[in-house]
């Protein structure tokens, strides 16, 4: 069996094992180990490479950014910063039909600029926004759909855990990726808002029950009160992203500043006890270990692909087929979106990027722009069945038997279509991603 055939067979086995329910990191490590064993014909070489990957893959200090931003996200959720952002947005938009949906998108955008984790956004706003929308006669499908849909902003508006992971895999600057994500993130938030306005105007029955109008909840909130509620968010965004873009510190240091600010805000608000701090640290450890294990196993997978000559084979195949950059990009995006129906976001990056990055580089594509396109395509998978991780998080956090998983997926369908439209814009106009660099 040729090395290329071994690599192709490993991809088939990998997808089959993942579909069967085996953990992605275990599949990556196992398939890569066996693949190197077959290619080199020596189990010792495979074992040595596995050991080397375990020690080298995450040895750099820059990987410290992962636990720091994860910790920041959990602390921000604990401090109720997302709840305050929603209350302010609700005050601004509540008199519009669909206003609570717009408020959810706006507060998710603010929350995303602090945390960078879509799952955290989905969990927080399911508890904060959905009960409010149901209370004021919003359709349950719309309520859960707008929360799940807008939660994807957490991975596009910087800081973003996926951008950090992509930066490591592609050897690109995490700071540049953060900068490149600003305009696409705001564009997607604006597209979601426009979509809600149009749905409320043309298909109001999709948004509210026929006998209910705009939500008006309680007395007006003064500008001073709104400013105080937004102050923690502005402090977090200003200290983390402001310092990063101004060049005062690196992405890793920005993660440390964000975590320190989040702890300070949580303590000032008396939202953090020793017990809750321990829970947050434990959750951070679990997420960090999972991400680190994925990166280690992806490292040996990349080495196995390099040994097999698979990237060169794919490049030659594309050249013989006469595929240009646009055709390659369309095929690539289709593969990523298809994988998103069965595999989580981080795993998709770890599976496809070792194969596709060399081809994108050979075709002369800007890898920063390519990363933004990749992340948007990957995030579409968070909303699509059968996997749709954001939908499952919303279902778990809501715990309401009246809202089924099917209702959540149907509610996210308009936002999925909006994401596809924004993705096509980013593919056709790369400057939307690169204009701030």
The average pLDDT value, as a whole number, equals 82
Unreliable stretches: none
What share of residues is helical? over 70%
Instruction: Please state the overall shape, judged from the principal axes of the Cα atoms.
Output: globular
Question: Could you say which structural class the secondary elements and strand pairing correspond to?
Answer: mainly alpha
The number of helical segments is 22
The number of distinct β-strands equals: 0
Give the oligomer, counting copies of the same chain as homo and different chains as hetero. Answer: single chain
Instruction: Report how far the terminal alpha carbons are from each other.
Output: 46 Å
Order of secondary-structure elements:
HHHHHHHHHHHHHHHHHHHHHH
Radius of gyration: 22 Å
Percentage of β-strand residues: under 5%
Number of domains: 1
Largest sheet: none
Short structural summary:
By secondary structure, the chain is mainly α. Helices cover 77% and strands 0% of the residues.
Q: Could you walk me through the main structural features you see in this protein, from its secondary elements to its overall organization?
A:
The protein has 437 residues and is mainly α. It has one domain. It contains 22 helices and no strands. The chain is globular and about 70 Å long.
């Amino acid at each position: 069996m040729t090395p290329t055939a071994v690599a192709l067979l490993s991809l088939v086995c990998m997808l089959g094992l993942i579909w069967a329910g085996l953990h992605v990191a275990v599949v990556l490590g196992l398939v890569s180990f066996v693949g190197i064993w077959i290619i080199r014909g020596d189990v010792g070489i495979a074992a040595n490479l596995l050991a080397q990957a375990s020690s080298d893959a995450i040895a750099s200090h820059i990987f410290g950014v992962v636990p720091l931003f994860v910790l920041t996200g959990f602390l921000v959720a604990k401090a109720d910063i997302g709840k305050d952002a929603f209350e302010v947005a609700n005050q601004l938009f509540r008199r519009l039909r669909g206003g609570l949906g717009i408020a959810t998108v706006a507060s998710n955008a603010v929350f995303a600029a602090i945390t960078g984790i879509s799952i955290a956004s989905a969990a927080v706003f399911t508890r904060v926004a959905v009960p409010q929308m149901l209370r004021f006669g919003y359709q349950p499908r719309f309520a859960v759909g707008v929360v799940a849909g807008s939660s994807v902003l957490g991975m596009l508006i910087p800081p973003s855990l996926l951008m950090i992971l992509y930066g490591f895999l592609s050897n690109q600057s995490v700071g540049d990726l953060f900068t490149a994500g600003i305009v696409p993130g705001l564009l997607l938030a604006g597209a979601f808002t426009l979509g809600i306005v149009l749905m409320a105007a043309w298909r109001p029955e999709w948004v509210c029950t026929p006998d209910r109008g705009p939500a008006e909840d309680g007395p007006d909130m003064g500008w001073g009160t709104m400013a105080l509620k937004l102050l923690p968010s502005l402090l977090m965004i200003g200290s983390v992203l402001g310092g990063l873009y101004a060049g005062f510190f690196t992405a890793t240091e920005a993660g440390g500043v964000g975590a320190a600010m989040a702890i300070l805000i949580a303590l000032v608000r008396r939202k953090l006890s020793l017990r809750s701090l321990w829970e947050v640290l434990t959750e951070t450890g679990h997420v960090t270990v999972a991400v680190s294990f994925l990166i280690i196993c992806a490292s040996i997978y990349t080495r196995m692909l390099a040994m097999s000559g698979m990237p060169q084979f794919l490049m030659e195949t594309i050249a013989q087929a006469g595929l240009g950059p646009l055709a390659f990009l369309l095929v690539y995006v289709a593969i990523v979106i298809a994988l998103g129906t069965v595999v989580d976001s981080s795993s998709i990056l770890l599976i496809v990027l070792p194969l596709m990055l060399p081809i994108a580089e050979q075709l002369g594509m800007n890898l920063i722009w390519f990363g933004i396109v990749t992340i948007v395509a990957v995030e579409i998978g968070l909303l699509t069945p059968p996997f749709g991780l954001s939908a499952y998080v919303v279902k778990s956090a809501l715990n309401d038997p009246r809202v089924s998983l099917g209702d959540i997926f149907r509610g996210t369908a308009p936002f999925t279509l909006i994401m596809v439209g924004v993705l096509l814009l980013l593919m056709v106009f790369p400057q939307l991603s690169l204009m701030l660099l």
